[in-house]
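Need residues for this backbone.
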């Protein structure tokens, strides 16, 4: 049975490595989705570890206990991953983890009955593996829709890995006792786990593979210069203090009309913005937890910065308007948003670009507003 211990040991090590990577990534950007996936991978790692315990503890009560515990954490793994995927699509965690906990507890008691009372293999693993397998398949299907909306290669990898892994767990209670197939089954599972691990790491490091989700619009033909109150200089960032982003959009539209390539980051619904300001071709990033071609979760700061930087670097003469700083701060730590804005400011200074941040100063602390405007030109709108 050396093959079994080797297979599970490799799988266990891989899972803990992915968990560690997610921990590091979460400490960097405090993304809620990464937090939920981090919890899921922790349970997945414990599942493999408890399986090793059943090999190391030969027979007896503790062997049966660790077997039951492994089924419990596997069921937790699958339903937590499903819950986090639901969060990715809707921005809501159903019942605050009551559902996954209830399902996992049911699976655990079913495993206890199978291990200690019925003492027949299929009954030990049937419900836990089926709950987990169906949850993994459902998660994979959810990710498939995410990949279809965003063309995200990491999501395709995760989607395929989850569906295959889930299907493999459905046959586990019946094929695991088949002696000739067991080695192949465990190695197949290790391959699916590896595929899932690669996709998960790709998801949290989008700059390794992700192409910009916004296209650089061609400059519009320059119109005769109309009178404007503020002349925006290249390589400069501006903090516009106003209760509503009216002046910011007025200046932004004027720049677009005179040849600049624009990008908007907003909480306002994109179609409404386009209709109101006549911005038919200007790319708009909508900060939303819902899926969409140009939607980005407000906690996914890494992807947001990656997309904006790509836009600025590919544009010949660009202007960026951000009118959702308050919303970003509400969903993240202020220091995270400050570092992100400083990063964008550096890129703007290095490229033919300018940035406007529209902010209602009443929504933040006075010292936070002062820190934001420290390296920008401040425009006061009465």
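Answer:
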């Amino acid at each position: 049975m050396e093959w079994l211990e080797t297979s599970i040991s490799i799988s266990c090590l891989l899972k803990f490595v992915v968990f560690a990577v997610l921990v590091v990534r979460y400490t960097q950007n405090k993304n809620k989705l990464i937090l939920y996936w981090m919890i899921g991978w922790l349970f997945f790692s414990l599942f493999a570890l408890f399986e090793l315990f059943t090999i190391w503890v030969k027979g007896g009560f503790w062997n049966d206990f660790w077997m039951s515990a492994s089924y419990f954490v596997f069921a937790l793994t699958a339903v937590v991953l499903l819950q986090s995927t639901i969060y990715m699509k809707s921005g809501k965690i159903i019942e605050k983890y009551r559902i996954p906990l209830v399902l996992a507890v049911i699976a655990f008691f079913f495993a206890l009955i199978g291990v200690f009372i019925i003492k027949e293999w299929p009954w030990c693993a049937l419900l836990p593996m089926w709950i987990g397998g169906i949850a993994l398949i459902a998660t994979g299907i959810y990710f498939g829709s995410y990949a279809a909306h965003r063309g995200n290669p990491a999501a395709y990898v995760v989607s395929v890995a989850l569906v295959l892994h889930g299907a493999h767990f459905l046959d586990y209670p019946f094929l695991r006792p088949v002696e000739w197939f067991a080695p192949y089954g465990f190695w197949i599972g290790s391959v699916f786990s590896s595929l899932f691990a690669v996709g998960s790491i790709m998801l949290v490091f989008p700059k390794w593979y992700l192409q910009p989700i916004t296209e650089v619009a061609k400059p519009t033909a320059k119109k005769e210069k109309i009178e404007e109150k503020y002349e925006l200089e290249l390589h400069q960032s501006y903090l516009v203090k106003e209760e509503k982003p009216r002046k910011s959009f007025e200046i932004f539209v004027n720049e677009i009309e005179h040849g600049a390539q624009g990008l908007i980051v907003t909480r306002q619904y994109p179609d409404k913005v386009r209709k109101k300001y006549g911005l038919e071709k200007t790319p708009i990033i909508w900060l939303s937890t819902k899926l969409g071609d140009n939607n980005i979760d407000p906690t996914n700061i890494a992807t947001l910065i990656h997309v904006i930087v790509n836009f600025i670097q590919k544009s010949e003469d660009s202007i960026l308007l951000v009118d959702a700083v308050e919303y970003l701060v509400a969903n993240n730590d202020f220091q995270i948003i400050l570092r992100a804005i400083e990063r964008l400011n550096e890129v703007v200074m290095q490229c033919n670009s300018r940035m406007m941040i529209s902010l209602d100063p009443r929504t933040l602390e006075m010292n936070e507003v002062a820190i934001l405007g420290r390296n920008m030109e401040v425009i006061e709108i009465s």
